[in-house]
Amino acid sequence: MRVRLLGPIDVVVGDEPRPVQGLRRKAVLAVLGLHAGEVVSTGRLVELVWDGAPPPNAVNALQSHLSYLRRTLSDKSAVRSRPPGYVLDVGADGTDVAVAERLIAAGLQDRDDAARARDLQRALELWRGQPMADATGVTWLEEQAQRLEQLWLQGKRALLQARLGLGQHAQLLPELEQLTREHPFDEQLHGQLMLALYRTGRQADALGAFQRLRRTLRDDLGIEPGNALRGLESAMLRQDADLDPPPAPVRAAPEPEQRDAAEPPGPVPAQIPLAVRTFAGRAGQLARLDALLPAEWTPPGSAVFVAVVSGTAGVGKSALAVHWAHRVADRFPDGQLYVNLRGFDPANRPMPPADAVRGFLDALGVPAERIPGDLAGLSGLLRSRLAGQRVLIVLDNARDAEQVRPLLPAAPGCLVVVTSRDPLTSLVAIEGAVPVPVDLLTDAEARDLLVSRLGARRVAAEPEAVERIVGACARLPLALAVVAGRAATRPELPLSALADQLGASGGLDAIAGADPASDMRAVFSWSYRALSPAAAEVLRRMSLGPGPDLGIDAVAALAGVPAAAARASLAELDRAGLVVEQRTGRYTFHDLLRAYASELVETHDPEADRSAAVDRLLEHYVATAQAAAQQLDPARDPVPRAAKHPAIAVPEPPREQAQAWFADEHRCLLAAVRLSAERGLDEHTWRLAAAMTTFLDWHGQWQELVAVQEAALRALRRLGDRPGQGAASCELGQVYARIGRFDEAHQYLWTALCLFEQLDDAPGLARAHYHLGWLQHAQRRYRDALSHSEQALALFERLGDKLWRARALNATGWIMGQLGEYERALRRCRDALVENREVGDRHGEAGTWDAVGYAHHRLGDPRQAIACYGHALRAYRELGDRAGQACVLSHLGDAHAATGDAAAAADAWRHSLDILDELDPAQAATVRAKLPAGAPGPAATVSG
User: Fold this and answer.
1) Which family is this sequence assigned to (predicted)?
2) Do domains 167-239 and 801-928 have the same CATH topology?
3) What is residue 103's three-state secondary structure?
4) Rounded CA gap, 76 and 69, in Å?
5) Over the range 611-622, which residues count as b (16 or more CB within 10 Å of their CB) and which as e?
6) Coil, strand, or helix at residue 323?
7) How far is it, in rounded angstroms, from Cα 699 to Cα 659?
């Protein structure tokens, strides 16, 4: 277990990072973490955490925060109460700050440059961004964050000095140039830059760096450089031998067949581009790359290590690869090679592999006259030059595996990182490359990126604006970097004004840049132009989908192609990083790519083609949803199927898959209802609403059910379909009763009743009485409820509707139980149970077992009730009816309590609460009141 403060505040238990929620909780942990092993008094904790202005209940709040932290740490003894306060007891290395301070202290004392570099590098890798970046506004912690930033800079200076002592001056130049720009007054860093320039033969540039610093100090501070820097300038002017680079380390000679014996050693290349100092997030990907570094180099028979960093355009693949390359550069003393392969170049001209190999050979010092003309000869010579070497190779922006293979070394010791919008699966399959997929930033990582660019205070001052900026940029690093750059150049501009500009201009125009490399529209176009015509059309048509994602059949409907063709195009789009298969068979893209695809479809596809595509999609949803709904609950009256489009495939999901289909599609179906209503497609609107009713009801999504049924009712009114209006009114009345809005429920159900009476529609009238019975029951008007339920039962008997007769029998039996007529209730419900089984109504059977169990409980036989509830619970779980499960679990807890089994009762009630807290908070409060204080937590599974 480790508490991490050198970045966002969190806890690592095992290998799992656990976030800490809430500013004050983070502050409590940070204060204790910075005093790890020391007692911090309660008064001091309160003062620091609440920044000198604690609320009246601060001590109670502190105790609550400490309880939360003990749970998060998974060790109640980690935060101990020790008068006069509390102590964080996590061991000597229990915080990243403690580890960093120990390693930096050791590194500063080491006499050996290599040992010093190892300790300091390990220390600096613990920083994940600005220390305690998510605890801004707490003055003492902000002061400590500044101290830790200075500690990082102290360690960085010492590491640079050690690496200069190891002769790594060439590799350090890009990093030193960046650091001196970030710290324009730091004389030690400037001195190190001067020394690195001098040792690479750039004496004039080294002296020029001194003169630039001198002007900066004079102009801004009115001072001259210190004695040490002036002495370094003098030593350079007289070319003091003490400034010469240290002798190169002796390396094992390569095997004779690997290199020409007469060939002199070449230069050490250092081609990695300048790293981004404000890199944020990507802890998982960095750890995956770190794992490629072997503990021992050149073990017998080992292979070259290759990583493929892949993801969509602008997601930060190159930044990740370059950042990591700089972190581990010292592990590769023979140099670092880099090439941009231009796989998705705006001009659609990827770099030929032969050109890339020639560049590497030149960097390795191979004379031009020795470089072959053919690709096979070039690759062979490159492998020979790299044999026995420890070189890091970054192949950026690769088009495909064939472009990469000629650049791969053959002998162990080298490590290759490839970035591409394509996952390069053949490279993974054949060469054994390790995939490192890169997705959009999390909200926290996106905020950290803005903090690193704009500073914690500016970001913390406008949290709502930051949230809007992150949303407008779709958590895409390139887009966030462009916007942050705009904000950084306008420090006087409030972030809210920038967020308003993004919202007003919207989409890609909001983050367009003058440089094509930072213009999202241009960046996306490089991938789009490389697509096949079929895949390009699929990408455009996908933007017409109203939901958050699309299944393969839905994509096929939009494109008007068979599912197999749609699957092939989606695979191509996935390889290009333009869509993401977020779950098996379901595809999406981020908001900026959607905006780009929307622009394309408006430009390339005529309005008639777009309209036809949307119509096909809605027809697909209607037909498939109706088929799935009938499988989900065969008891529902089947809605006559609409005529299907000849291009629409309508899968008939088996009953056990219908639940999963709705779970995958329900958000898309909700959006489809809105879209069909907007387009005036009334038939589609009410059919979709009717098909979704069962799933939404069973999953407690009652507000969504209200929305779709109201849309259906409006559509049916426009169509003049009076029986349909009655059915929709019944559904609305039922769901309003569910959520406790009894006036609206009564209005809709009486409207339906009157409408069915006018139409002389006996089935509709029976349903209306049935639902009115449940409404009166919900209002505890049990006599009125029984009257309506009895009328419904009589009508269903007259109609010969056995299924609904069984349900009405159960309804009357249940209400009799509420009236205390338990024997009569039991007889009614047992009759209902027999008829449920005869007609195969599994859902009706589940409800009836619940009613039978209730009657047994009230008749003084709770053990028999428990058995009945078990039958009901199994059925509801099988069907996926979560609301039904919650109700039965509550009753099951009551029965266990009646037997004296308090633990089993609490277990059932807590499982009920797990569902009700999400579905029905009012009912959850009723169940929660049954739990005694300190009741045991839930077991893994409630039997049933």
Assistant:
1) Belongs to the AfsR/DnrI/RedD regulatory family.
2) yes
3) helix
4) 9
5) ebbbbbbbbbbb
6) helix
7) 10
Cis peptide bond N-terminal to 84, omega within 30: yes
267-290+302-437 sits in which CATH class? alpha beta
Is the pLDDT confidence value at 146 over 80? yes
| Domain range annotation of the chain | 1-166, 167-239, 267-290+302-437, 443-521, 615-704, 801-928
Topology of the domain covering 167-239 = 1.25.40
CA 270 to chain centre: 35
| pLDDT-above-70 percentage for the chain | 88
CA geometry: angle at 778 spanning 775 and 781, to 5°? Answer: 85
Per-residue model confidence (pLDDT) at position 486: 66
Q: Are 398 and 424 in contact (CB under 8 A)?
A: yes
d(CA 567, CA 545): 16
Class of domain 1-166: mainly alpha
Residues 6 or more apart whose CB falls under 8 angstroms from that of 324 comprise 286, 289, 290, 417
The C-alpha torsion from 429 through 434 and 439 to 443, rounded to 10°, is: 160
pLDDT for 256 equals 36
Contact status, residue 317 vs residue 311, Cβ threshold 8 Å:
yes
Residue 643 to residue 630: CA distance in whole angstroms: 17
**Rounded distance, CA 675 to CA 684, Å?**
10
CA dihedral angle for residue 713, residue 716, residue 717, residue 719, rounded to 10 degrees: 160
CA–CA separation, 778 and 818 (whole Å)? 11
Out of 516-525, 772-781, 871-880, least confident range = 516-525
**pLDDT score of 940 more than 50:** no
How far apart, in whole angstroms, are the C-alpha atoms of residue 606 and residue 630? 37
The residue written with tokens 């349903």 in the block is 767
pLDDT bucket at 514, cuts 50 / 70 / 90: very low
Cβ atoms of residues 891 and 846 within 8 Å: no
Of 1.10.10.10, 1.25.40.10, 1.20.1090.10, 3.40.50.720, which CATH number belongs to 801-928?
Answer: 1.25.40.10
pLDDT at 346: 52
The pLDDT score that the predictor gives to residue 636 is 64
Angle at 309 between CA 340 and CA 348, to 5 degrees: 40
β-pairing verdict for 336-340 and 392-398? parallel
Non-local (6+) Cβ contacts of 265 within 8 A are 248
